[in-house]
Amino acid sequence: MPLPIDTHAHLYASQFDQDRAAMLMRAKAGLSAVLLPNIDQESVGGMLQLAEEYPGFCFPMMGLHPCHVEENWEAQLEALRIPLDAEPARYVAIGETGLDLYWDKSTIDRQRAALRVQIAWAKELGLPIVLHARDAIDETADEIEAVFDSRLSGIFHCFDGTLAQAERIMAMGSFRMGIGGILTYRKDVQEVVRQIPLEYLVLETDSPYLPPDPHRKDKPRRNESSYLRYVCATLAELKGLTEDEVAAVTNDNVLSSFPRIQGMLA
């Protein structure tokens, strides 16, 4: 029975400070691996500590989240490039980067500038790029398509777009969509995902955010990687497949999208 992979979880977040070890035990019982996106300078230490404590299970990325792009964004990126250059082989992707038009539209120009630098990093280092595109799927795709070539691949994380947007992503050939907890309760997302070939999808939680049903009303409201089973079960139902079949195909997709983890799983 294949155990699925959580391709996007912030397990270093403060929401896990009281029970991180127990949470990770639950994750390890049901998952093959968890990929850890970075968000800013402050998150690097906690992320790398998890990668050291759970080798072959927790895999780090390096990037600057669009909601953390400050006026000194160039200095922020320079600081993040230091650990990336020091140990380039330990990172499995550039991310989480992208654009966010949900929280603050006023920073879009510097978000775009920071994203362009990180796209260049992905090409230079031969790494996939993990894209945040909240209320900005088309705008993010514009940035990717403007410089697209065979060196660019990755994931549009937390996909909740239209079928036309999914088709735009699939047309690139080397990008997939991350599907998380919203699949368990948003009918519009379910209808679109039903029409997307499974080969273009990977599973994620975005922990500690966006918990799936039946955990949306938990208090405190928190997602965790072990809840990926609800996403897998919903996707299996939509596709008329077993959960094992979904896990097997989406895991193959992960290994294709993140080639560095091949042979490194515990």
Structural features, described:
The protein is built from nine helices and eight strands. It has a five-stranded parallel β-sheet, sandwiched between helices. A three-stranded parallel β-sheet has the order 1-2-3. Strand 4, helix 4 and strand 5 form a beta-alpha-beta unit. Helix 5 runs parallel beside helix 6 and helix 8 packs across helix 9. The radius of gyration is 17 Å and the shape is globular.
Concise overview:
With 266 residues, the chain is α/β, with parallel strands linked by helices. The chain has helices spanning 20-30, 43-53, 73-86, 108-125, 137-146, 163-172, 187-194, 228-239, 243-257, and strands at 5-6, 33-36, 58-60, 94-100, 129-134, 154-156, 175-179, 201-203.
List keywords for this structure.
five-stranded parallel beta sheet; 266 residues; globular; 9 helices; three-stranded parallel beta sheet; alpha/beta
